[in-house]
Amino acid sequence: MRTRQQLVRALISDITVNIDEADCEIVLTIHWKGGRHSTLRLRKPQSGEHECVTSDDALAVIESMASRWSDEHIAATLNRMGLPTAQGKTWTAKRVGSIRRVRGIHAYKSAEKDGEWLTLTEAAMACNVTAHRIRSLIATGILPAQQVVPGAPYQINASDLRNPQVATAMRRKGRPCQSSPEIQIPMFTDT
Q1: Helix or strand or coil: residue 50?
Q2: E strands within 4-158?
Q3: What pTM was estimated for this model as a whole?
Q4: CB 3.0 to 4.6 Å from 145: which of 18, 130, 154, 173, for a disulfide?
Q5: Rounded Cα gap, residues 146 and 154, in angstroms
Q6: For residue 43, what are the β-bridge partners?
Q7: All structural domains of the chain with their residue ranges
Q8: What helix, strand, coil percent values describe the chain, rounded to 5?
């Protein structure tokens, strides 16, 4: 490396730097020892611009989840999806909040939640069942639920919990999709 530096110093007489405001470029003019000149044009960074930029995928998740989920939920979802911060770190609620404030994304406010959308845990508490029961009803398609992106927490509409089919499935013992004994085929035939 030292030899390269000495060689470059031996070949270059001087370098002149100018800024071309019209094209937003930095113009470097290299004056070689033999009398020749070379020009190198580089894009000039905008004010406040740097290389650490949050990915578009992470920003899309933050924007889509911010209206219904807290920063903690958003951070957990981003980490589950394997989307790092601009610096390559894991997400925390503080980092999500910082991105929201810089980008002008409005935060979720639990006080404004009118009970229309529930988390899986809130739905389980409202129906007096376990979260596992709600999760299995979602998995079988009996209880409709939404995810903003795969890996995000489920959102359950409170009105869906009042559906008679859902209420019947919640009262059932055992598996939610167990068929009635009348339509089952006997295992052993009478001989």
Answers
A1: coil
A2: 12-20, 25-32, 37-43, 117-118, 156-157
A3: 0.53
A4: 154
A5: 6
A6: 25
A7: 10-43, 56-112, 117-171
A8: 40, 15, 45
CATH architecture assigned to 117-171? Orthogonal Bundle (1.10)
Chain centre distance of CA 102: 16
Cα separation, 62 vs 148, in Å, equals 10
Amino acid at 81: M
The strand pairing partners of 156, in sequence order, are 118
Work out whether strand 156-157 and strand 25-32 pair parallel, antiparallel, or are unpaired: unpaired
Residue 139 CB coordination number (10 Å): 12
CA–chain centroid gap for 190, Å, is 59
> pLDDT tens for residues 7-37?
888 999 999 999 988 888 999 999 998 889 9
Kindly report the backbone phi and psi dihedral angles of residue 175, in degrees, each rounded to the nearest multiple of 5, phi listed first. -70, 145
Burial of 123 (0-12, 13-18, 19+ CB in 10 A): buried
Q: Of 33, 30, 52, which is closest to residue 41 (Cα–Cα)? A: 30
Counting every residue written for the chain, the total comes to 191
Amino acid in the structure at residue 135:
R
pLDDT, tens only, 77-96: 999 989 999 888 999 999 99
